Amino acid sequence: MSQTVEFIRNNRKKHLDWAIQLCRIPSISTRPENKPDVVASVKWTHETCERIGLKSRMMETGGHPLVYAEWLGAPGQPTVLVYGHVDVQPTGERALWDADPFEPTLKDDWLICRGSSDDKGQVLLYLRAAEAWLSTEKRLPINVKFLIEAEEEIGSPNLAPFVEKHRDLLKCDQIIISDTGMYEDGWPTITYGTRGLVYNEVRLSGPKHDLHSGSHGGVVGNPVTTLAEIIATLHDADGRINIPGFYDDVVNPSDRERKIMASLPFDEAKYVTDLGSPAPFGEKGYTSVERRTCRPTLDCNGIMGGFTGPGASTVIPAKAMAKISMRLVPNQNAEKINKLFWQTIESRCPKTVRLEKHEHGAADPYMAPLDSSYMTAADRALKEAFGRDVAYIREGGSLPILPMFKRVLGADSLMLGFASPYCNAHGPNEKVRIPDLDRGAEAVTRLLGYLARQ
Amino acid sequence: MSQTVEFIRNNRKKHLDWAIQLCRIPSISTRPENKPDVVASVKWTHETCERIGLKSRMMETGGHPLVYAEWLGAPGQPTVLVYGHVDVQPTGERALWDADPFEPTLKDDWLICRGSSDDKGQVLLYLRAAEAWLSTEKRLPINVKFLIEAEEEIGSPNLAPFVEKHRDLLKCDQIIISDTGMYEDGWPTITYGTRGLVYNEVRLSGPKHDLHSGSHGGVVGNPVTTLAEIIATLHDADGRINIPGFYDDVVNPSDRERKIMASLPFDEAKYVTDLGSPAPFGEKGYTSVERRTCRPTLDCNGIMGGFTGPGASTVIPAKAMAKISMRLVPNQNAEKINKLFWQTIESRCPKTVRLEKHEHGAADPYMAPLDSSYMTAADRALKEAFGRDVAYIREGGSLPILPMFKRVLGADSLMLGFASPYCNAHGPNEKVRIPDLDRGAEAVTRLLGYLARQ
């Protein structure tokens, strides 16, 4: 093992170059015009897998292709399935970036580029580890399968059908994923739970076209005003979500968990300042850490209607829309919450507007067992690679694939996160901390070794 | 007088030709490339004033020039100031017009051309009347001043400074304006009131950039949700505006007015169907006609924040904005209402977001005295020319020049409208009904006579 770990340490420069090559490909999965780039990122991954000695193939899905690669030369040993993604989020407003979002920039310890932390840099850790084992020991200590897709940022619409169709090919004892964050830079972190998600769009329409607000103001139901009024009913004065039945299945964190959470340093004032928010915010009766991980939330992600250009235009808008999403916690069920949401919206929508319902996906929450043998091995590997105790956290975001993997493959997921809390995934100047990637690669290399039965 | 009225009737063809000449000039005030055309329309008006015997000059403003013309040969008689404009709106999409927007077309009773009803056709009524008097009686029965501008369609930015600078030149006892509509074709109409306007933009900001709603949902004040919550407070359950002090100065329509309004035919079901709204709407205790003319209103004209593209993006938006305008009625004061508005928004804005205030203009409401000698004379003139009783209406829109004239010149305004309710001003195929222009010219001719003190 020491030789293998040495290999990781000696190949940092080459491996950083892998990250630069892959990050340079603008694989924005949501933009049809970037389809060739998405395919290019998959192809790059496939070729790298082959080059390091995995058996790899690009496989078609209903949408963007994916990479399936494997090394299965350790009969009797466990089989893990490594999941990751090489597609990225759109870049948003160019002016908010300090440089071209797809021109990887090195600054101090950071690699700055869209996709650097989410998830290209983290996917590569496993190829680095595989290369290290195959170069030094000519084998992996356990069986490893790789499932690297390119539709994660559009909600993995074709992954579940793919996994269902290929459940024998993907059969495994454990899933390992690195698509999460570290508690602090340099602090190895295992995420053992994620929130679920229900993401909907409420569209209201009133008059058949925008009207003069002088000629018709006071006689026409205004879709923008009405939408605002409906949104305002969705929280009560204590910041709780005002949808009947919403909290029925919520399980509060256990005492052990609350103790873990309380043990992690959290500077609320600094947190708020770093985000740029003028004041702390949240549901009464919970700490900020609990609010952002163990409590369900509801947010308006976007709203639009009427005249939004510079200056004034005195119209009564013909229509308005809002994107509204909810984060769910165990044991809330996404389907059930979705029904409750629409029942509530319908019951609060006046007759003066028409309601159109659009759904943009749903995911159940997930929680991994805290004391599995995989968790124990990961704890050891991370502790050795980073030289400090592992932080255990629950993640506020959603990974719909976790409950899907559990359902279809029967396997739990281990989430080892190496993204900086300051990585700004999905935002401008997304970045990843290179020393954490390097130690992450070492941890993953060690983990493969510790998972082998003696 | 009968000879003068006869002149009007005998010169319809020539006067229609005036309208065709003036309408043919594409005097779109908002387009810099049409500046020479705007000047040409002012020049044409100036030369016509001179030709019929008025003392006329083109005068500079900070923007497009205007025409000031006068005939002041009736000492001891009242002086009226005729206001109008010869600039026009852009034509919009050419495909929506049946013919070239600036090639006047005659069809049945209609003259079809951009500017035909708004306001060239109506401005010419006064030149026709002046010519009739000067040709037949060699004098006007009263003193008349003309102020014909070319910036009305861009909000008359230079008119108030011009009027203030030339308040002596423009001194008068009454303003007369024909830039409004008829209640129905052939139905002479006096508009005696307009609503005021306060148009503001509320901008809220929270975190310094859009955040991941999973990582931070539950701990960050969301500017879109907060904006919706603030907007929702602006009306109560009865549709009344919930801004403390907002109704303090509202004068309810008098019994006489309510009777006038109730006497005019109004098919509410058809009105709502025509607009495409799914159901009637409005403040309790008032008819639709009252709601859209005599009651103040508050509308969101536009709203925007966060992710508004197709599909889903799970952000907590960094900012949100809404354009919110209020229509005011006598005796509300725009400045006072503006202050109350911002006081209310500030008091309801939580500490979790920052508030930025933007103002896009304000105008006071206006109401003309219903029983002035000018109103009485106009009633008689219109009734005789059209052969039916006059419709008295209040307009839901705003004409900021009316309170400005009242403030600077101390004079009330008489609004005689000759545009068809189907004229489609500002839209494609703008048109004017020629018989209404001809009767309008006769009415104005008679009015000048009736205003002379015996």
Percent helix of chain A, as a range, is 25-40%
In CATH, the architecture of the largest domain in chain A is 3-Layer(aba) Sandwich
Total domains of chain A? 2
Q: CATH fold name of the largest domain in chain A, please?
A: Aminopeptidase
Largest interface: A-B, 92 and 80 residues
Q: What is the molecular shape of chain A?
A: globular
> What is the straight-line distance between the termini of chain A?
14 Å
| CATH homology superfamily of the largest domain in chain A | Zn peptidases
On the 0 to 100 scale, the average pLDDT of chain A is: 95
Please report the total strand number of chain A as a whole number: 18
| Helical segment count of chain A | 14
What oligomeric state do these chains adopt? Answer: homodimer
Please report which band the strand proportion of chain A falls in: under 5%, 5-15%, 15-25%, 25-35%, 35-45% or over 45%. Answer: 15-25%
Cα gyration radius of chain A (Å): 24 Å
Point out poorly predicted stretches of chain A.
Answer: none
Largest sheet of chain A: 9 strands, mixed
Specify the structural class of chain A. Answer: alpha+beta
